[in-house]
Write a structure and sequence with these properties.
Order of helices and strands: HHHHHHHHHH
Number of strands: 0
Strand content: under 5%
Shape: elongated
Largest sheet: none
Number of helices: 10
Number of domains: 2
Length: about 210
Amino acid sequence: MKAKENLSGCKGDALEPRKNAAQRVFETAQELFYQRGIRAVGVDEIVSQAGVTKPSLYRSFASKDELVTACLDKYAEDAWTQIDAAIASAGDDPRAQLTAFIRHYSDQMQQPDFRGCPMSNTAIEFPEPGYPGRAKAESCKVEVRTRLVDMTRRLPARDPEGLADGLLMLIEGAYSTYHIFGSQGPARTLVASAETLIAAYVADGQQSRD
């Protein structure tokens, strides 16, 4: 994001609708946190880039931690909207839906501005269990696993929970290798690897029923 004109100290900032200033703060923080990391970005830089004053930020967000959590909430909301749309477009077949779920993450890593999963990045930056942003990251990852288990249980698979955990490890492994090798490294095999794993569990599940 290009730096906007710094209006700090200008009377015009105080006269702007609070929602307008809050939205500028939020969008600026969301981009800076994602591109540079949470610890590397301070409140002074956020308000400078957003073109607002510190009071404008603190009227909407009580602290930087609250702003971080709001950004993660929005990321999760947008991600689930995209995932739900991908699953819906796959039709009624449970296996096609599961593949669409995995493909969402693969497609995400092909985007030129991708810099890792914000939830994973936050968990790495903040190992402290009590940090609000980490709590949000943990709850989101738990939801991903829950969704995967729900989907694998609709397949004729041996040990659906084991399959879901294997798929989650593939997703997280793809995220991890992306930081070293980029989108054309091991991460590019995510969908193919997931299909191989699903096929193995489904084949074993069908054999156990015969």
